[in-house]
């Protein structure tokens, strides 16, 4: 039993007649080139060694194997390829057993599928999530999985990308056996030993027969194709998955592998792959901020929420859903009752949809208490203020929190644009004050902007990031400015949209252009959904400080003056007859727009959709660059994650800054300079954009250098 470690990341050790092959490539045993080489060598060694009668593959640490090393995609491939490694495992002349704990995803599951026998223990997560990265399984997964579990189940796994547990994997036939304990080594050896004693043969998945019923499998493929064409708007890889599975039905295994390879490489070359993989890493990188490097989060066991309106109640639900108790403060009993009703309404909605039981609601609401006295917050570890958006009102709340909260309590404001430094400066403990900007509906939207005032202490920042994790939110660090990252950039591109509307594009054309770009909704649909009165109030508030020389489009004001605030009033930019959720264009709105064009002395011109996108994106990217330049966002990727999780930016484009890199910063800058000829005040190129273009760099170089 002598340990023999040809490569560091794959070790092999003979235990009796079983060669134990351990993948040890932290953090998640991704299949980088050294791992691929190590596995290949191990199988060669097993075949060559008479003492070896079977092979057991396990992962060290918390996972079996998380898949191909995503960082290698887009770089020149290094041999051996993963398909070759899988084929080599399958060709082994001695039975190969894969013992799975933790993640066996993508290429990790493909390694297991190439083995001859599979065991999984409780807590295992199996899946083929390549679709989420703009890919198809590319190491035999599209050929082996259907042969093992049939086209329908295999397509479901590959098209959804979902992770399944050990039990479901057993039911599907993806694994042969469940381990009784979570001791993966003991379970793996016991299984390998049992197979040896039973003289179990080498059993290759390429010969499995779940595709034998051709008619049934063809029907499943057709159904998946129809469903995918309908659902996967603009996505490239889902239909390639269907095509690859069809090849499994129509061709020999080897020909199927060739087709899979061809389709996989098409996906690798697609900009969607680059966008989705950027999104994968960006949402992990946003967690890395300077303040959390050395600071320990404070304990959060009790949470207070001031304000029971839409935001306060949504935040309360998010906190309750994380298993924490909530104390809600309102100014009187009636307001408190309304706050409680807002919270209960969310759970009642879930019960009505069959997604929650009455008992579960009761158990959750048992953690909810309300009070009209701030004193009830005395023991709170974290208090989130979600009252009316007015600095005086907020400062009054913070004065109360300063009075009642225990030392060390984190005091957070949910303001979406107010100066948190001014709020912090107004109390005796500015180091405890932070911004937690939730997005509506707060229990659903994933984004949480964590706004960092000048005096906040690092452990308060660390606590906010820890809270985001507990609430299953995606946190993005933002500096203090009007609108922080998201709403500040939103203001810029919304203005560009309004200009185009006044210049000749209809709101319906603009919305359509953005839906075609990949947004679920266009900006005017969003405005109708959110309620036009919100923007109207902001415009009125800012009217006094608006630059008189800046162009101001009044169309939205004319619409709001009629009381047309969008869906909730039955009309806004669109008509919503009888509570319809999808609006229809309104000829009266077009008449209002025409009148406004005349008033402003504008002769309308036509826009093609491509120009709409160029202007909209140029405004977004330029303000994004300013936000990075002024250190409001740490890196361009923080802007990307903000827009992916808070503003519906199509994930497969990676976010606005990634998109800018894709179209090329010189192109974006030349567009801005072109547009500036009409309106130099609005279209001022960001100094960062100019600098990057001059240096021949792009936004991603800034992501790397942090
Ligand atoms: C594929 O397999 C293609 C094949 O079909 C064909 C090939 C020919 N590679 O998420 P975490 C990093 S496509 C490189 O925070 P968790 C991650 O960036 C692949 N790095 O941990 C992070 O780094 P850092 C299909 C990876 O415990 C660290 O590991 N597979 C990879 O919350 C920890 O990650 C997938 O799509 C990777 N494959 O969750 C699975 N995976 O510490 C992707 C992770 O520097 N991975 N990293 O920030 C996951 O879903 C989760 O990471 C997992 C663990 C569930 C495994």
Describe the structure.
Helices cover 49% and strands 11% of the residues. The two termini are 46 Å apart. It has 3 domains: 265 residues, 2-enoyl-CoA Hydratase, Chain A, domain 1 (Alpha-Beta Complex); 185 residues, 3-Layer(aba) Sandwich (Rossmann fold); 164 residues, N-(1-d-carboxylethyl)-l-norvaline Dehydrogenase, domain 2 (Orthogonal Bundle), CATH 1.10.1040. The longest helix has 21 residues. The protein is α/β, with parallel strands linked by helices and 706 residues long. The strands form 4 sheets. Strands 11-10-9-12-13-14-15-16 form an 8-stranded mixed sheet, with helices on both faces. Strand 14 and strand 15 form a beta hairpin. The structure holds (S)-3-Hydroxyhexanoyl-CoA. (S)-3-Hydroxyhexanoyl-CoA binds next to strand 5, helix 3 and helix 11. The site of (S)-3-Hydroxyhexanoyl-CoA has 26 residues, from strand 5, helix 3 and helix 11.
